[in-house]
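Hey, resending since the last one bounced:
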Amino acid sequence: PDIQQVLANRQAFWGRAALAPDGSRLTLVGYQKAYTADLTAPQPRYASFDMSEFFSALHFAPDGSRMLAVDSVGDLRAVDPGRIGCEVLRRDVLEGLPGGQGPPMDMVLSRGGASLLVSRSQAYPYHVGVWHVPLEGGQPVALAVPSWHRPTALAYAPGGRHAITAEAG
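The structure tokens again:
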């Protein structure tokens, strides 16, 4: 199926979507399949790829040249949007974080692409944690998220010095 069919039939697809910063490409990555759409053509061109990886969080780099993704074990990967090939950039994104956590729920890159925010949930007692992770190494830093707050959206403030979380409620 092409992306139009996938989006029209929501039961046929679950996973993550990423839109290039300039709006030129849409990528959907799910279980064992990925779809891309080149949105610059007069008629969008679609491609599908078989996947052996599953990413629980996905985001285009600020320049649109690649996507960054976090898998369920915490490996940070660079993903080529043209062929959906990937390489490990950092294996320890979730290292040292509390156990009993689910896979990353969401991720967002800083404007300059030097760091990311990652959220994960803990099942019991239920809590959503958010971490600031520098891409070039260094320890992830836990943000102070109140126990009553369930962040469903992450962002960096325009200057990059503050993280912003929001929840649908």
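The chain has one helix and 14 strands.

Sorry for the duplicate.
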